[in-house]
Design a protein that fits this description.
Layout lengths: L9 H25 L5 H14 L4 E2 L5 E2 L4 H8 L1 H19 L7 H26 L4 H30 L6 H34 L4 H12 L1
Antiparallel strand pairs: 1-2
Length: 222
């Protein structure tokens, strides 16, 4: 998922990077309203957890491997604004310290994973949660579904960027087929990890889970 240097032209990289910066700045303001003294430390722990788990790859198919993106997971745990910031920090550290994704492509990677991955995942979470009974199991199931969809959604962002500013000669249709099919499989792993992690946190400290606190508040009003 991490785009290397030179794969997308500078013009497209700069335009998408600028959009990412604007979205991250907006998330910085939004996170101030979302985070509390109790949940703020969890945002930091979430970033550390995503960073660590992204180091663990699992086999997918034809010699390819995948790892947790973490956007949907972070959004459910600490809210979408704070999740955007957490994934942004992870990607910046990976790019500068581990050369995981090119520096000129950092804006592209931020847009795909910390914007698309987080916000599409959170949108799916809200839709699925609304259709299910209001309990902890439903929150975990909705989080798993969000994790599954968020991965090919982020991959689709890359395909669109490739279609606009690719420097390679592969057909866009070929890239689309390869990226989406592979990342649908990776999404299964994402869904399992997201479901298990959210379930574990709900079992121990459900009061800290952003995606459950709103659920509990609705029950209290009724």
């Amino acid at each position: 998922m991490h785009i290397p240097d030179g794969f997308i032209d500078i013009k497209t990289s700069a335009a998408v990077g600028s959009a990412a910066v604007i979205a991250i700045a907006a998330s910085l303001r939004g996170a101030k309203a979302q985070l509390t003294e109790k949940s703020a430390p969890l945002a930091g722990l979430t970033a550390v957890f995503v960073f660590a788990v992204q180091m663990l790859n699992f086999p997918v198919a034809a010699g390819t491997s995948g790892h947790l993106l973490g956007g949907a997971l972070a959004a459910v745990l600490v809210g979408p604004y704070a999740a955007t910031l957490a994934i942004t920090v992870v990607l910046i550290i990976q790019a500068f310290l581990f050369a995981d994704g090119g520096l000129t492509a950092l804006g592209l990677n931020l847009f795909n994973m910390s914007i698309i991955g987080v916000w599409v995942g959170y949108g799916i979470f809200l839709l699925v949660r609304k259709a299910l009974p209001k309990n902890k199991s439903s929150v975990a199931i909705a989080a798993g579904a969000a994790g599954f969809i968020s991965v090919p959604a982020a991959a689709a962002g890359f395909v669109l960027q490739y279609a606009v500013g690719a420097t390679a000669t592969y057909e866009t249709s070929t890239v689309f087929t390869a990226m989406i099919s592979t990342h649908l499989l990776i999404g299964i792993g994402e869904a399992i990890i997201t479901f298990m992690t959210v379930s574990a946190v709900l079992a121990s400290r459900s009061d800290l889970v952003f995606g459950y606190k709103g659920n509990a508040h609705e029950l209290e009003i009724r």
